[in-house]
């Protein structure tokens, strides 16, 4: 039912693309990150919670339809519905059914319930298109509660020593997840404008986020408050002159890549926390098993190795080339992209 071409993942019967990387007429979007939701499509369909952020990022005049999870609509006989992916707010797996055959495009996903994002929902299908950002056995996540205990302990220690705590976090997804897990009794949470603008859009649509203050509002006479603060900002901002207003400070990166010592050493930060919005090895395997699919198409990440492993487990699995990037792009993105 689906094929892969120079524009993206294509359903010819419905004449729609899923997360296309070139301009097309009709695009179904799994979530609002820049490598999946690109500018220039004539018509978009996304989960309703992705619509406001997509308008913020792509322009308020885009033609976009928002749908609810589980809502079914038909295009030329193809029944299409969106289902929770657990990746970020508004993220979805896209299910397409035609003449009894079901395909599911996962987009990016994680299995763990983060308390903020709609929890991943297994969707039965014949063919499943999965990411493999962390598709190696070395990637095994600790429970989120343990990671946030570590983050809050680090923040508290910095605050007690008169240092602000700056965490690198892309503006959509990771920033809100970290914010949701912080112990705000420690101090004030400041945000870069890219994060604060995203938070404002999410709050306006009724998503309850803990309080934050824009870093752009900082003036004189707040030295004590600043020294006990935690700051959420995109990677490029933390490594720029923008961050000097918080000196002295300690820096941290929260990413699945911090699972590797080499990943920690590659990035100029004082601390690394293993926190990812993508499924780990166990999560990928569980998600695939629960779909009941026999055919598996493996996209970005360790696609060759993961597809080979799946074949050894009896699946009809193969890697496919896409222009999706995964968490690496989240770490390297500029403030106005992620």
Description:
This protein has helices spanning 51-58, 144-160, 174-181, 193-204, 223-227, 235-238, 261-266, 281-291, 303-312, 327-332; strands at 2-5, 8-11, 16-18, 26-28, 43-47, 64-67, 72-75, 78-84, 92-98, 101-105, 127-132, 164-168, 189-191, 213-214, 230-233, 249-254, 271-273, 295-301, 316-319. The protein has 338 residues and is an alpha/beta fold. It folds into 2 domains: 2-139 and 278-326, Ribonuclease Z/Hydroxyacylglutathione hydrolase-like (Metallo-beta-lactamase, Chain A, 4-Layer Sandwich), CATH 3.60.15.10; 144-273, Rossmann fold (3-Layer(aba) Sandwich). The chain has a 7-stranded mixed sheet, with helices on one face. Strands 1-2-3-4-5-6 form a 6-stranded mixed sheet, with no helix packed on it. Strand 13 (189-191), helix 4 and strand 14 form a beta-alpha-beta unit. 49% of the residues are buried. Residues 329-338 have low confidence and may be disordered.
Features:
single chain; 338 residues; alpha/beta; Metallo-beta-lactamase, Chain A; Rossmann fold; 7-stranded mixed β-sheet; 6-stranded mixed β-sheet; 10 helices; 25% strand
Order of helices and strands: EEEEEHEEEEEEHEHEHEHEHEHEHEHEH
Question: Architecture of the largest domain, CATH level 2?
Answer: 4-Layer Sandwich
Number of strands: 19
Q: What is the mean predicted local confidence, pLDDT?
A: 93
Q: How do the strands of the widest beta sheet line up side by side?
A: 7-8-9-10-11-18-19
In total, the number of domains comes to 2
Portion of residues in beta strands equals 25-35%
Characterize the main sheet.
Answer: 7 strands, mixed
Low-confidence stretches: 329-338
How many alpha or pi helices? 10
Helical percent range? 25-40%
CATH superfamily of the largest domain: Ribonuclease Z/Hydroxyacylglutathione hydrolase-like
Shape: globular
Radius of gyration: 20 Å
Distance between the termini: 32 Å
- Secondary-structure content class: alpha/beta
CATH class of the largest domain: Alpha Beta
Topology-level CATH name of the largest domain: Metallo-beta-lactamase, Chain A
